[in-house]
Batch of 3 targets.
Target 1
Amino acid sequence: MATRPVTEEALVERYGPHLNLAPPGGWQRDGDEVDRLVRTHCCFCGQQCSLYLKVAGNEVVGFEPDYAFPFNEGKLCPKGVKRYLQGSHPDRLHDPLERDPDAPGGFRTVTWERALSRTVDEIQRIQERYGNDAFAMLSGVSLTNEKSYLIGKFARLALGTANLDYNGRLCMVSAGAANKKSLGIDRASNAWDDIPRAEVIYLAGANVAECAPITTSYIWRARDHGAKLIVQDPRVTPIARTADVFLGLKPGTDSALLGSVLHVLIARDWIDHAFIEAHTEGFDAAAEAVRDYTPAWASQVTGVPANRIFDAAELWGTSETGMLLHARGIEHQTKGVENVMACINLGLATGKYGRPGCGVTTITGQGNGQGGREHGHKCDQLPGNRDITNPEHRAYIADVWGCAESEIPGKGLTAQEIIEAIHADEIKGLLSICFNPLVSLPDTAHTRAALEKLEFYANIDFFLSETAQFADVVLAGSLHEEDEGTSTSAEGRVIKINQAIDPPGNARKDWQILLEIARRLGRGRYFDHFVSTQDMFEELRVASKGGAADYYGVTWQRVEDEQGVFWPCPEIGHPGTRRLYEGGRFYTPNGRGRFNAVSYRDPAEVVDDEYPIWLTTGRVVSQYLSGTQTRRIGPLVTQYPEPLLEIHPQLADRHGIADGDLVRVTSRRNSMTLPARVVTTIRPDTVFIPYHWAGAQAANQLTNRALDPVSKIPEYKVSTVRIERLGERRAVVDSRDTRLYTDANATSPRER
Amino acid sequence: MEDAATGTGRADVGELYAGRDDVVFVIDQSRCIGCNACVAACAECGTHRGESMIHLEYVDRGSTVQTAPMVCMHCEDPTCAEVCPADAIKQNEDGVVQTSLKPRCIGCSNCVNACPFGVPKYMAEIDQMMKCDMCYDRTSEGLAPMCATVCPSEALWYGTREEFTQRRQGQLLSDWDFGNAHITTKVATVVTDREPGPLDVLLGREPQFRWQDDPFALEGRG
């Protein structure tokens, strides 16, 4: 039974999140004790900035910038600077745990033998009774390419389940689906060094300053060359503050705005007829869909002045080069795929593909969101971005894996659908790794009820995340710096993650845990040849060969020698592909880029008398995703300690809300209480809550489970709420209140 | 490979600036994204680990996301040092105004009140003023200051004047008027045009409409 063994408070007391405020040994530790500097990359977002970790013994004690890596040249955001504080952490799991309501903190330490045999017994019991697909697996793209590949193979051949999906389902799938359908390949169109070559930069739903901070330096380099900046966002984000054109639209109206831009491009003949003729298809249908989308019409739908829509179209249409960067703002919607297609239409219509300074690209959010979605832990995909329903693709992978094609299960359920299937009693058991769905999926109460219905739940992780609190067995896995492998950055650059330290105590590397489960399930013959993660990469190379995401020409040695290699890279002698679509050659079967007709439709939920305010959610720069790591790193928590409700003064005044007041926010799912931050930098019909916190502070208590029909991404960015003032509260905390922590031995505020 | 047009063209900053006397530390507040990386990195420096000597200010969060990284401007004639009753603030031969010396500092906060830029901070926990010393342990060895190294948007920037001119728009200015007081700083800021002379911080900007004044066109002004 997957329920919390003791109260949430008791679990938090024992397993955190507690704040790690200082490196091991304290701040005064002598720097001369550092044994070595290990060059690696940040464990957080998709930019994958390079840095050095300072190591003393088996502990990471600090960081040093890496000036030489071309992507970030030493630059880091605060998460990259402080990431090392997740190691040597009081909350770190050192041993396997088993649920025990009588033990302090609700779990007892057990041997690996006990933890693994219990897990394998439960997998076999559930699968024998209910069928293989009744045991599901959820995984995460903080994992390296090697582990992603292993998990894809493990779920299909060791568990024998179709139901494997991953947390990239909440991140990249809208962009992936649109890119594959329109352009035939799911990757950023350009290496980031094309951004400074652009004359115009169009950011659509991309808060780059907070979610991809180093990308701002590329945008500023473009502006140093005279580039103009267009920003489309319901909030004046830090990068929007100096934009040339700001499109402050209502949440969920992106396709109307983008369609109107296309309408103006066509009406003014700011389109590249020769490119459309030679390299694309479907233009007429796309043009017909926006025939009536005048700026005046779009202004009514989006709330953006018509002249600004025209200005954006003029900048994009009359510039020789341009880059459109989009992110979760337009992708976290029930129209996520259509929104991305509307962006692609703007690129195709103006011939802004395959040339220096030209491209339309998503900004991958998660650390290995790019590589992770290519090599196997997506429910409908096999390595190399192959299609699990395609007989030829299945046969090829079966040959690589040495199994019968029939042994590979078919297409499974997506992450949110797995939750629904648990509710429907179709899925009874779950294994998860590096995914915190209780915090990161919409409608928290619904997710919690699903966990409680599971007959058995095992979790592989390094901290006891909010989801792991519900586990029957917790298998203590490895941190990013405790293993080696590769990841693929937002640019499509395969890079090397180097091991700095060994897992502490009895914790094990994730892949060793998975291999042992596979052996105990009697499927060792498919996995026993993996002695190192490099062995997995070598098999991945072959498995991806000839696929849409072809890594065959990438080797660990090349990655080290060449500061990363860009896929597609089909042969050892191939230089890698920094810029896709050169010469107007797309990866679709006929080589043409496909326009798609995108008509505007409403989001799943629209404002009404009962819920009259739009709610949108997003990130702050000092926190990352569900906060499993960043809510344990003291300086990052101090920077932005709790979620705040951003609200415009006009809306606040109507409800009698002053800055710092406590506000109850209620949606059709649930309600939550948090302090207000009254600012003029958000639309007066919209409120914003960052989503990194858990429990009573979780924004996803409010969000809607509605999914994009194609990508199955939830509509985090658009739901409707009502608000009421509850009372006064202390002033809103901000970074000015950062204190100096001089007690190096303090592990949590309660102990200081 | 990245080329000069798109990359910063830097290999190893340490090698690049060792022994150079034409380097300049630049603040361009218009590029600040408020991420706090500068503050986070400052606290990692070897000589004052765990304590940041710089801070980040929201100018007026109610009406803008404008933030300002507050590094020391390193005045030619530092007011903070002039008003210090304990002679705890020293200026070295390179013009770097150092943080207060312990045990001289008596925590009186004269410097905090006197600094025209609002840089020094009194730290109650240690009963001492702390402020930026331009990462003297790094810059003296040719490395960029920690904050300018990590700054994602290059709002804080360190390099040669020639490099700045080649790479970036705007001009460097180190002269400020605070009413009748004229101040020259070692740290430069970025202006569109140096011609009008020192920045007079007491004068408001020209009243012309910008979209930032009405970002959501609530007053009907797109």
Target 2
Amino acid sequence: MTDALHSRRNILRMALALGAGGTLGGLTTACATPTGLPGAGTLNIALNRSLVSLDNKLNQFDAAVTVQRAVRQALTRLTPDLKIQPVLAESFQLTAPTEWTVRLRSGIRYSDNSPVQVEDVAKALESYRDTKGGFLATFFPEWPRVVKVDDQTFKLRTDAPLPVLDYLMANILITPAAANKAEELQTGVGSGPYVVTAADRGAGNYQLAINPNYWGTRPTVEQVQVRFLPSETSRVVSLRSGEVDVIDSITPDSVEQLRGLPGVQIENRPGTRITHLFYNFRKPAGHPLADVRVREALSYAINGDALINDILQQAVIPVPGVVPPGLSGAAAVGGFRYDPAKARQMLTGLGVRDLSMKIIWESGEFAGDTQVMEAVYEMLRAVGVRVTLQQFEPGGDISAWRQGRAGDWDLLANGYPSSTGLAITVLQGMYAGTAAKEQTRDTYHGYVVPEATQLIARASAEIDPARRTQLLTQAQQTVWNTWPAMWAFAPKAVVARRERVTGMAMGANNSYDLTQLRLAQ
Amino acid sequence: MSMIRYLAKRLAQSFLTILLTVSTVFVLIRLAPGDPARAYAGPLSTNEQVEEVRRQFGLDQPLIEQYWTFLKGLFSGDLGTSFSYQAPALDVVLDRLPYTLTLAISAIVVTTLVSIPLGVWMARRADTRRELAANVATVAGQSMPEFWTGVMLLTVFAVLIPVLPASGFTTWGGLVLPTVTIAILQIALISRMVRREMVANFGAPYLTVARSRGVGERLLTWRYAMGNASVPVVTALGTRFAAMLNGVVVVEVVFAWPGVGSLVVRALETRDYPLIVTTVLVTSVLAVLVQLLVDLCYPLLDPRVRLGKAVA
């Protein structure tokens, strides 16, 4: 039966009302002009990954650090040139081989006006320790114990000497103990210059405003909008149209597009990540790649300059050793050289003929990955090596292959980050393999060289800075002598910004301090 | 068949459809390559850490046990925790749903408002030059892939003439370009269908009789002919709308629209099992509800239709 209520006209009206309701329900953000341009006092940042957290227990991707640290702070921080600087700590001193004494800065309060306390530090360490799959946890050889001395002072004690604890603690963000837990914290109280005024986890949009209780110099940018734009094209278009002020994670292709555009500036500096073509160290004795001389010979086939200039558009720098050159403790212990004639000569001299290699990598592991690998294919073919390329999609089975559980391979193109800015962290993660670790396939592609492992362990526990540097250099030379990689480079941290944003001091870890930024009127 | 019996039967069918759909997805994604525990724990994690993550998310359990846990959760409203968001998967999807609903409703409203008058206009001018021009335009609209249309609109209206936002939904203007991108294809499809139905009805004897009785052309078109054409047209609109609710993936990606479509892309990349299944569940429920609503509209649109029976 068709009554008045169910007339076509009423149905249409209801449909329109539903449509309008749904539309209204979806609009959750503001502070933008009708064309999407940010307001005069608002900075718009677009991130390549969703900022599902304002904590960094799990999500330590580079650009997120900028926002996370605007809300929460650590005892120390890495300066743009990778030096350590106290933040919540007034002093952070090594007072015994296994003991650091920390004094909290006096008068510091969180955004809810509660004081920063020693208990908060203990709880923060506990939360980071208990986070399942925590990325940062892998950098702590052991978790320090907090021993309270007084309301302002405490000691961080370890069983073994941990002379880089001040660097490690730069990654541990402090939150009031009562509000902290071993899960990602998406909003909440912090001691940083900004507070979260609106958060839409679904869209990955956050709105920050100045923390009225901030203990440091008041920022000049009143509001910060953080947006999640996963597609690089979207980020570039949004920057070009002026809709966002800063974008990160830019490939060389996009840098080319943006370079020279009116109103747009590119910021870059050498990064803390190493990307390399790493050999599979699980090859049995007798296999050509088990011979260090073969590994060395193959490296002469790679024309690094061509890759850097023609494909990577100078968005990377060559690595003169085994860790990125900007890291504290990095030593220039070697260098990759292009000499295909020498490569052929060495391979022939070693009796290596008809060598075939399988190279694997994951899509998006580094900018221009596919083009680089295709070029490497040609370069190796030019010295008589047959190459098979196998690319994995993100989230696929690359991990099982890396561990040698899914199949055999010869070379892996991938990277390793340093969130501490220290060479020792990278060395520990990549080159401190042991037989026990290899049992569980937890070494870095089977790299187990006891001499290197011992030197790294000694450097890790060495308190004397000069002696530590010496040990680190020895360790890097030892590693270099094993020719672990065919070629290596350090991608630069690249950010593009509108010219109305000034004062950006880009850090090597691809982050910057929001309090330093200015917005032109 | 009474309305209540019909509804009960349809709801039971819908429930089975949804259960079968999510169960199939549940099994298939687990058979697909990739290890979510390792993806979640990160490439630098140790085996021990990966195992811990696997235990934490119950991935170390046999498939049948995982499925049983899922079914129990389904009926208690707990669809698991998203691996990548570390939050209840249902909450994550519901956070995104308003954006997809907004876009889909906006697109279907524009489609309806444009395609029906356009289709009628074409039908009334069938086989004329003006109709030919409209035909060419609709064929073009039907042929242009959404990613291309989206990029072109983006280039013109966000970059060359920056009058509309390029990405996301930070302002009402942000709705325009994705809506138009979706609507162009849908308008082309629906208007051609409306034209076909209307042309068939214009030639039907009942209209000739009505016309001979002096019924005006406007009434003939909008009440008589459109009345008969409304069932297939509403069916088509409902189907298109249901498809949009399943995530207008390409458009959401092009315009960085924070909806379910872009969420499911991310969930697939990270092998976020709970999120994938929850997305499928939520969008299936919506799609089934839309289809049910369309079915319920039939008797209102065409009195000859009785629920549960074919048109006589």
Target 3
Amino acid sequence: MTTPLKNLEVIARLVPQGARVLDLGCGSGELLAYLMRERGCVGYGIELDDANVLASTQRGINVIQLNLEEGLKLFDDHSFDVVLQLETLQHLRNAEKMLRETARVGRIGIVSFPNFAHWPNRVSVLRGRMPVTKALPYEWYDTPNIRVGTYADFEVLARKNGLQILDSFGLQDGEMVRTLPNLLASVAVFKFERG
Amino acid sequence: MTSSVGVVTPQRMRFDQPLPLQSGAQLPAYELVYETYGTLNAQRSNAVLVCHALNASHHVAGLHADDPKSLGWWDNMVGPGKPVDTDRFFVIGVNNPGSCFGSTGPMHTNPATGRPWGADFPVCTVEDWVDAQARLIEALGIRQLAAVLGGSLGGMQAQAWALRYPERLRHCVAVATAPNLSAQNIAFNEVARRAIVTDPDFHGGHFYAHGVVPKRGLRVARMIGHITYLSDDSMEAKFGRELRDAELHFSTQDIEFQIESYLRYQGDKFSEYFDANTYLLITRALDYFDPARAHGGDLARAYAAAKAIRFLLVSFTTDWRFSPARSREIVKALVDNRADVSYAEIDAPHGHDAFLLEDPRYLAVMRAYFERIAADVTPGARA
């Protein structure tokens, strides 16, 4: 799923001016191009999909075609100010390992993913059906999201891996949700560092 | 709308100043043969140098007037409207010293003896070639190339340009290449060389005087080379176990399988036009290339010189001669230096040869990257 532009802008505000950024699963390179243009950042996008690699090349960002399932061997410890993992973690078989890799390579990690505990999803499951929404736009049988988790689940996973959460909130229609995000937001956002 | 650059005429430039070589020897006065396509702009900022691979030449695109079958080896890449668009770029194809396609090489006269150089032609390295090319570029009045582009051995030359003359190029595009040859690669080269030097017609490299050519050796060299350019899958798809005739002949000498027929054909064709001494020289240059060597094996340190250049690396998943892992080593060295690098790993079935073939994903990435180069070097355009 591509991240809506307003969500990108909210997330971009978490990235310091001039930061060296690694964008894991950079898609068509929209956010990295935005960060370079608006916030003077530098860095690389990592992408597996041919069409996205092409789109990123057309956009003029540095894109490196890699399969994230193979880890981040290419990158040294703490070699980036910020590692972004937006709407990517849920596609990865080894999501926990990738989270640790993110914390290893970056001083700060920023993760976003669809929050399965958003109330319409809960209603849908209560009615006995898997949700199909803007944040989770796939039927259960053809979803690329092989991991579904909730805002609250991520807090547990982060704690288990010794990550220090610096900030977290929900995103709903491009707006930050800081009250009951696990219930009221379709997307979860976490900013963390290695504790 | 794409088309070929049309009829092109090779040009020749003479250099009277000797070229010092890495070996300590030097090449006395020498000539380089080259072709150009497109127009150099007023700022002289749109030149792209194309470096050739093992058995190619300066003839990158278009046709020679006297031969309608003489299409350049990268005509699908270079031309009007093509990924390296000659409506925007001034493209230069050059033939290296030691080659058998017109630049000074083993078939030419050694001024010290008055006879052909033969095996006495000095061993040239990739870096020596790049030095020779740099003089040509200078003589053409170009201070900085928009890009140096090459595949395979040409990709090594592109790397050497970035490491040796970092201020003289803005972009380095290296396709299906490696930071050095593996032991397996060197082993294949050695088998090819032994096939040539043990051919009774080789005469220690001075076969020209005997009016013969070590064709048997060249054929075997080409056959083994050719096997390494293809993937197992593409050979399987093209030939499988298909027999030349409908039945077996129970012969150990004759051709039974179509793949044998194909390899012999390739070998025969090659032995008609390629020079044995050139093959030895070029495979040695491949063996020697290893920019990390001068830096204790640390490729990242070698690449520190090239930080300011922007790189595109492309590899092909089925290329076992220059595998994606080898390109990733270069990517890592560049990332360690915080250099600008993009890397595409093309899932193509054709093996090493893929870099010369039509693959829409590959050509699209090349086109997109060269559009970026055009925007970068064209006055008035946004960088």
